Fold each of these.
Amino acid sequence: MARTTARPKAPPGPAPSLVRRVLGWLASIASLLGALGGGLVVGGGALYIWVPDLRPFALGVVLAGVGLLVLGAVAAFPAVKSAVTGRRGRLTLNALVLFALVTTILALLGFISFRNAQRVDTTATKQFTLAPQTIKVLRELPEPVRAVAFFVPTRADQARDRQRADDLLFEFARRSDKKFTYQFVDPEAEPSKARQMGVNQYPAVVFEAQESKRRHTVLIPPVTEQDFTSALLIVTGTQQKVVYFLTGHNERDITDVQENSQGFGFAARGLINDNYRIQPLNLSQAGRVPEDAAVLVVAGPKRDLLETERDILLNWLKGGGRALFLLDPDTPQTFKDLLRRWGVVLGEGTVVDQGSSVTGDPRTPVVQRVQYLDHTITNPLDVTFYPLATPVDILADYKRDPRKKPPWVDYTPLVSTSPRSWVTTDKERNEFLEGKDTPGPVVLGLVVEALAPVDEEPQRPSPREEQPMTSIVVVGDSDFATNKYYYAYTNSDLFLNAVNWLAKDYALISIRPKPVAFRELVMTRREFNFIRYSSWFLLPAAVAFLALIVWWRHR
Amino acid sequence: MRNTVAIAWKETKSYFGSPMAYVVGAVFLALTGYFFVSSISRPFAEATIRGWLLPATFFFVFWAPALTMRLFAEEQKLGTLELLLTAPVRDWEVVLGKFLASLGILVGTLALTLYYVLLLFWFGDPDVGPLLSGYLGILLYGSACLAIGLFASSLTSNQIVAAIVGSGVLLLMTLADQAAQIVGGIASRVLEQISLTAHFDDFARGVIDTHNVVYYLLVTVFVLFLTERNLDSRRWR
């Protein structure tokens, strides 16, 4: 017979209080509370760091998480207590304390090393050591500056400059405390970006101040620290290149901003928009060409230079001056004589062009794209025209026998009229007269780069870079850049390009250029093939062969 | 220290006794060889090792865990780790010994790449400074990666899991600087400081920044410390 034992009934005790019941229930879900709380703390923390806009909300999430963790700990107090005070708990606590200690020490070490970092430039030419001036400019940038470097990555001929620009910009960014940033853009893949930044020639690096939106383009090559630092000074408005306009000889007036006038107000405004500072210059008053003159513009003078003025100009040009001469048919002789020192001859008379000119006015030659000669100034130009222009030429001797041209002077013609053009001294007749007129095509613009005037030997026959280089652009017309014609076709571009090209050599800041030793690999095709196949196969094959032997022995 | 050397020696012998280290080394050399040749294939090629240094650092994401995955995971699987931990050696001696063995393989593999340097000297006139700084950088970078791989190996008894975890962590730390460019503010700075690659660029260019050196050393020491703690925790977990 089965015995049944009746379990004694528990004596009825007092009913558990509500608090105890709640605590009991909470204790059963304590781990869930802990997990949820931990998750909220981590998630809220991440949100706080990554999304600054949601910080108040993220703080709330973190606090809610902490609340849940506390609640879980209170609810499971006995378990927590035994976990902390038990053997396992003590060891865990020990481990956590040690972990926290070591982490803090290492973090501190990292922080100290970050604040006291020393840099050693191991390159032979100290390529990555910026000049103190540059570091100062970068540290004191008044507003954020962004540079966009336009290079075509697939062009092998741009690879070297691209690397150098990247290295330099990287160093700039590192020294600027995040105020200077840069990016590389392929202008062929993103032509809209290039257009937006006003880039029509590349490689180039465009510097843009983020608040004032001032912009400056540095054409590459060369890649120099000096150019980049100057660009920073320009876009932040710290310094500007100054363009002086010669006055005192009835030149074009840069203060005249009347539309359709003969003044140069629009041209001056164009330069200001390109971040230049404009100044008139009266040589007899100033006594010298100021040192900060990036370019001197001589626009359509009608009166002769005084002897002192001529000497000042001559000496300044000899010392590496950069000047733009815009001269009309009746230019005074002293100006002509000055240019003759550099082998430039301003022709007598006016150009008549029956092949390409403004309708009904053969004395205003129109120059089409095909008529420009290859130069940075003219490459981006479209149509330009020159009312009442005079020819610009080099000495007849040099034309007849180029060997007579001194080696320290270089000429580059810029603009040529059509084959059906000529030069005449007759002010009325527009038909060619054999014997009286000189047949074309006629050069209307010329670039001169010289180490000395043609009749003087350069003082030091050392490498060209070390000597001051005189740069002169002569255009046989000043009307094309007057207010009346400035905005017609691409006349304004011709003027601005000429000034930009001349000002390129003028640095706002003097930084000694570092000698760049290019360490090229020199090898024949066969040698390259040897390097190629030995690098591809020799080492991996040798090591793989060893693997095979080991595997074989294992087997 | 004698124990450390003994463990390192044992692990090194074990490396040379199995084909794994050779295979991993061969693949590493094949890839660096490929990138070296492509960097000097273009016209006006410069005599530098920059062309293969950066791709090599990325390859470490897979290379380092492949080399270290066995070190603890296998011992855990075979049960020999308990023996090792109860033997009269300290945990840190075990960790350091195994780490040094993997570092030895890294140094050996990098020594083979000196063949490229030899070619550069033969056919050009390379700048010695950036060569030295490049090798210093890749050695420091490699040690940090090996330490992370070793830590991953100590977490599991499965070698494949160890390799995947190690690669995952390294991938995140390699791509952190890419992420830094997307986010802004403090997060960007934090990510940049964490990133393994962001600290390497200077070495490749020929600049030795003490902060970068300290960074790789700290990562290595910290992760080795975590590995040692992880082993220690087996005693009371």
Amino acid sequence: MPAKSTALRDRLTPGAQAPARTSAGLPPLIRHLLLALAALAVIVGLTFVVDPFTNVRLATVGYYLIAVAGLTLLTGFNGQVSLGHGAFMFIGAYTVALLVLHVPSLPFWADLLLAAAASGVAGTLAGAAAARLHGPYLAGATLALAVGLPAVTQRFPDLLGGSNGLAFTVNSRPAALAGTIPTPQWQAWVVWTTVLLALVVLANLTRSRFGRTLRAVRDDEVSAELAGIHIGRTKILAFVLSAICGGLAGGLQAFLLGTAAPGSFTPVLSLSLLAAMVLGGIGSMWGALWGALALVYFQAWSEDLTHALDLGTDIANNLPLAVYGVVLIVVVLAFPQGIQGGVRALRTRLSRLRRTEEGSR
Amino acid sequence: MNRTTVVAATLAAALTLASCSGAGEQQTGDTADAGAAPGVTDTSVLIGTHQPLTGPAAPGYSRISVGARAMFDYINENGGVNGRKIEYRVEDDGYNPTRTVEVVKKLVLQDQVFALLGGLGTPTHSKVIEFLNTEKVPDLLVSSGALMWDDPAKSPMTFGYQVDYTREGKIQGDWIKKNLAGKKVGLMYQNDDVGRDSQKGLDQFIADQVVARQGYDPANTDVVPQISTLRDAGAEVIVCSCVPAFTALSILNSAKLGYRAQFVVSSIGADPATLTGLLQEFGKRGGTEVSAPQLLNGLVGTGYLPDVSRADDPWIKLLREVHQKYIPNEQLTNTVIFGMVQAFTFAQALKAAGRDLTRQKLVDAMSSGALEGPGLTPFGYTRQSHSGYTGAFVFKINPDTTTTEIQPPMVTDRESGPITPANLQRKTPQEINLFGGTS
């Protein structure tokens, strides 16, 4: 029986096998940095060939990616379910908005850092409460956060703009680039640089001792505690990190769209992020990329489809969500590990194929 | 190939795949030019809008674009404007400002629309006004009465459409002061510029009558606390600066509490047909059969467009024809008419801009002051003012949900100027002659 359960766990937690395959021989930090640089180069190159709106979409994928990655760390690696991730995006967006409006002299990177810090503080408080809760209670508490927090804007309409929210423009582009690099392109660079830096940090953390601690707590709290792991502290730390990612995502969204309004941070956003994580694959940071792509592009494609088919408004309104739901169900049925699970299965099959080919030679 | 390159290649491939939908030229940027004419061909002109087809403001407002589309179908079938058919692209933003920014960027950067028409909502449209003006996209007939659309110095491309909330508030306040003198008034308002701008007008007349002020958030449909507070403060009149869904919710919840007050509702939420539908729907959801005509009887509202029930009005005749021909299965409400009038007014401006079309010419046509629509008060468009309709009439809903005008159209300004009769000599559709002649 133990053998079987270990096998099952290995299947459910593919991340656990990853450290064994550090192939390139470089230390993880260097490898991740190189990877991030390569990705950034690809993205910067891409921003030159695509049209301006695709640059906006690229940047959108970026901020969703970091939000979903934070959720992956929390849920996938640490086993805490959060239905309130949108609340941290709310905090990040409003922090950036308030700073841009009231402290315009501050450079944008400082706004972003402060947004991350603000949501980190909120995450500490929420995490401290969350560490005492399990399963449905935790889910309920985090959902309450997503429902309740945006209502703060109603209490302080003068500061936070009420239902109207805040509108502003972030001028972060160096003067030297003005006139040569269009705004959407510059925005895509800023978003992806931030996101990739954050991902490098996340990737290193999850590969490190801390990552093993996270997984140990997720898999079995009792044995983790016996092994000397401080459960509460680990859970809170996971919460803080994921909140910081959420805050960064919200701050980047505010940067990109020039707005922070309560209507953008409904519980639906939190649930969409969760769904994107499941769709992409819970156990791996790569899943977050697929999830973010799905979040942005399924919506866009199904809208294009409704335009092309000239459907009635009632159908057109619900089609994007319906398509998303169907895709989610199909993917999860086919690959319980989400899209990344499918990618991994494909890779395994390819390498097995290659091995048999080599064997037959 | 080591793993790093494999991974990077995958990422690159994924992103390329994801972005292939829009690879192309790169012409928009920081050098936007009002002399350009994207979206215009010899035979067509593409315009776009953002509307709440879903979400909290969708009940009622989702029908506006249906009306506008019907009017464009009618115009296109008659040869279009200056030989160009109007293509009208509607994007759903769910009344969510984030989505508004996304869909408007899509309309401008990807679809390359020539102009934006009737973008709906204060919380939503306020987030794109700067973008549209930077990109020099004509932003015409915004579907909101907030004051911020009328700022030609800062937003030269943006033009209002509705009577602004302050003007409307002044006319309402003046009417209440004269006709409901001494009554205690409770204010129920959307907690954003709708509420702020309305109170700026109302308070000029009835600040001393107001006993309670309650805001609502469009994301929260529970208005029992607000209505209870107004009741406990003893308000005999409720002034509702609310969208249709929240007018209906306020009426329904007062009825549930056994609280009878005289409702005075802004034009944005006082369409009897839309309210009837909403009351029945919300009632059904709450498990009760409600008599909408009974609940609406005696409600006072303000408006600036001819009411759908004025069968003898030449404009209503035209709009009914268009309705019959293009959207016979859609109920003809004042909300549908709002969209039709908006489309017609846009077509007028497009005609005045001439065959040799540019964005700047369209904006010039808007500010020429020559636009005369079906409205019962004049537009405020000049070079110095981008204000839409400049006043309103007051009406009462009859027991059969038709309406009766109880104060003729009055005009006023957005400051503290006087309220005077509009005395508008309205042109008929024939006199405007959209399809004849060339300009």
Amino acid sequence: MHQHSIIMGNIPLGKFFFLRLENAFLLAEKGDIFELLSDYDNLENDLLSWCNFKGEKFLEKTKINNSFAYKMLKNSSTKFHAFDPKLSIAPLENGLSARGAKLENASPHYHFNLSVKDEIWSDNVSKIYQESKSSQWNASTDIAWHDIPKYNPSLEFAIAQIMTYLVENEFSALYIPSKFLPTISPFYHEVPLLLSSVIGDEARHIEVFIKRANATGLGLQYSTLTTQQSLYTLYKEQDYLKSSFLLHIMGEGTFMDLLSFLENYAQDEPTKNLLRLARKDEGRHVAYGMGHVKSAISNNPKRIELLKDAVFRRKHYLDELSGESSLLLESLALFAGGGDSASNFSFGFEAVEDLKQKMEKNRTKRLVECGIDEDLAHDMSKSHTPNFM
Amino acid sequence: MKTILLGAVAYDPKVVGIWDIIRDYANENGFKMDYVLFSNYERQVDSLLKGHIDIAWNTNTAWIKTLYATNNKAKALVMRDTDINFTTKFVAHKQSGIKSVSDLKGKIFGLGSLDSAQAAIMGLYYLEQAKLSLKEVSSFVKPQADETNIIRFNSDMGKHGDTGRSEFDILEAIRKGELNAGSIGSSTYVRIMAEGSYPEIESFYTSPGYCHCNFSVLPDFDEDVAREFSSMLLSQNEQKNRPEIAKMMSMEGLNEWVKVGENELAGYKLIYKAMQEQNLLENKL
């Protein structure tokens, strides 16, 4: 039990008076005693009525020097309670408040699908969020758009086609975290904040790739069935861990190798720059996915089965459809070779084959880092979609 | 067990939400119950007396009419904590110079709906106790120096003051200077003080406490069912953290349910007396 003083002085009965009184009782605990000090000596009847309606108890009035003390008891139940910040399941009553807030009783239950810490958490989440804030860039002003030269028509087409492909892939990377974001309990507020930054990054990538396609004078080109089918299998995944694994590690991890390849063969600085900046952003997304999957696996190694199942089921589904995107592969070969002469193209084609091997090797490495044994990691890596994402 | 039918008066659309929650809670907890809504308390009391409903959620006025019609044998089961120590407040403009009931000589005083205990019945009762010379008038005419003119605001008759409309009519008339003072219930008074909606108005008299609503049943109501009904309601006191219970309690204006005992029943005695004096005991449809 605590004793509280409310010094009202010459504040008359009215809105402000009752606001203070109401809040004082609201935050107190059942059994607490209040001494309200006022210059007025005729408040007992009105305070008694107020107490009756609020479920509180008016005790007595006493005169102290020139003022009056009205004693009241908090008889109604304690209204707020705090939660242990170390809870591994977000409390139902937590609603939209962040971890650390004290909640009023009878708050509505949101029933967030993702309210178990282990299903969303990564120990590096705050660190990545901090890095994200200091790595923001502007797709309009940070790229020297006017310095992009004109290339021969076949190279311009290759660039426009690659950008078209990048845009749709980036949309999957924008929409998938967006789909899960509002289902995560804010009790683990670091995760929704990070996902918001991921979403911001992807929006910027979409903007910059559309701008680069437009800079060719051709604009967006062909969106192929192969790419759409592959992205669709990613988009419709309902389980957050599987989705995070497929998107951030398998997809964006592979994408980093692709962006690095494109940066390497791009012939102008502005294009190299935008690819480099996008790759840097993707690095943070991969780091979150790795941390998330790593911790989920170390807490329960059986989860590897889930991830394995996700990869092989996706492969099985895609195997029944089409394989690689021939349009994309030709554009990549053209881009790497720098033109469509036979020698350029053959050089470029070799480079793309090297890239695919490098992607598979790096995927295996990432999977091993997550705690998956090497043989399985190798099989899973090989089974990844030929669409890269 | 047969399904118990409970009656309540629909003084506001929110009533549906309140009774839906109570009905669902009752049925979930094994007490088979449904409810019907009436447009006025006289019809509800009549239906209780005729056995069309089993339990009536009655105002104090409706309870006393039920009591009178059953030779004082009807039973009251449960009430809200806020039904205890309800009071009538006499209010006036802060600058009116009216500081006590005796200052009402030569003034115009407003009473609310005829059937509202807080706004009219108990207001009139305590004015008469003060031995004022009262004269009921129908327009705002200045009284003789030794008389007090009474004007009634009979709005929402049949709702027994539940809507509070006649009390707000009184407050508006005081604000406009048409009335010098008037009678309102403590619930409305606490509300306007906390909202700060009539900062120029204050209370200069608070009546002794009396009781307000209760769940009334006829004398022959099955005692086991009465006990089950009461326990069902009282068990909600421990369920306040459930959003729908908290919502219902807030809408219905209670902090907890209370079993009606001798002390609570005593809180109706003076209203009974006042209704007798004012010839209001008979339930007229």
